[in-house]
Give the backbone structure.
Amino acid sequence: NVHTHLGGVLQKQKNLPAAAAAFREALKLDPNNARTRQRLGDVLTATGQGHFARKDWAGYEAVCRELVGLN
């Protein structure tokens, strides 16, 4: 979606707080988007917020497991 794309652009521009905000908006629209969860986790880790990233990485893993039928 548009927010995921915007988050990616902002991430490449090193505007990590804005990228995180865009990825969060994207997840409001599509909470099962594994790639967006992964990217948000990456941004949070890069900004020293790894403790928040754990939730997004866990969500990323859960979505991936569901997609391959491991749940």
In short: The mean pLDDT is 86. The helical segments are 2-12, 16-29, 34-46, 50-67. The first helix runs from residue 2 to 12.
